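Why should sequence recovery work at all? Because a backbone constrains its sequence more than one might expect. Tight turns favour small or flexible residues, buried strands favour hydrophobic ones, and helices have their own preferences. The token representation captures these environments compactly. In the example below, the structure is given first.
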């Protein structure tokens, strides 16, 4: 059964309650960032770390809009066609429905409700959730800091793990360093 981002956040909250935590530190990457945004907008968190996070619905450029239209027509004709992110292409039908729901949900209102100190980490070469999206999210979250990781794509914790760890640990103890 496909779950919405809100339903996933509720499941995490149930888990947090079960563990007896009051205000956890949440960390979310990409889709997980969406879940963390929704969670932090509804429940108390001590700090929030969003890595290459999605959450603001982007207007499609004409070329992308056209590709989506062609894809939908071909799909209706039951013709095999591959389109979408690698996550989408590799997902089963349930996950695909969850991804489509998530991508079509704009979380700007939820972002504005976040009170916790928030660290945003984006790679300068990320083509899945570009750095420009990080700046848009920073504008929506009151207490957010953005760190750009040079020469990184969508997975900065894998591409520059030492620097990533230093940045996150610095944030957790109260300082943010720009790299």
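From this structural description, the recovered sequence reads:
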């Amino acid at each position: 059964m496909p779950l919405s981002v809100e339903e996933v956040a509720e499941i995490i909250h149930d888990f947090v309650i079960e563990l007896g935590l009051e205000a956890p530190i949440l960390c979310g990457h990409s889709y997980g960032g969406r879940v963390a945004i929704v969670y932090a907008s509804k429940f108390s968190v001590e700090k929030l770390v969003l890595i290459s996070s999605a959450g603001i619905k982007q207007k499609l450029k004409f070329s992308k809009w056209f590709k989506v239209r062609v894809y939908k027509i071909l799909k209706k004709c039951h013709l095999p066609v591959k389109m979408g992110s690698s996550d989408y292409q590799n997902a089963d039908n349930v996950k695909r429905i969850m991804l489509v729901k998530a991508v079509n949900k704009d979380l700007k209102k939820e972002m504005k409700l976040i009170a916790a100190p928030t660290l945003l980490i984006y790679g300068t070469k990320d083509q899945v959730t570009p750095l420009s999206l990080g700046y848009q999210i920073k504008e929506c979250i009151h207490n957010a800091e953005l760190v750009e990781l040079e020469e990184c794509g969508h997975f900065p914790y894998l591409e520059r793990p030492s620097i990533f760890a230093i940045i996150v640990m610095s944030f957790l103890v109260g300082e943010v360093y720009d790299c």
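A few observations help interpret the result. Strands lie at 25-29, 47-51, 118-123, 144-149.
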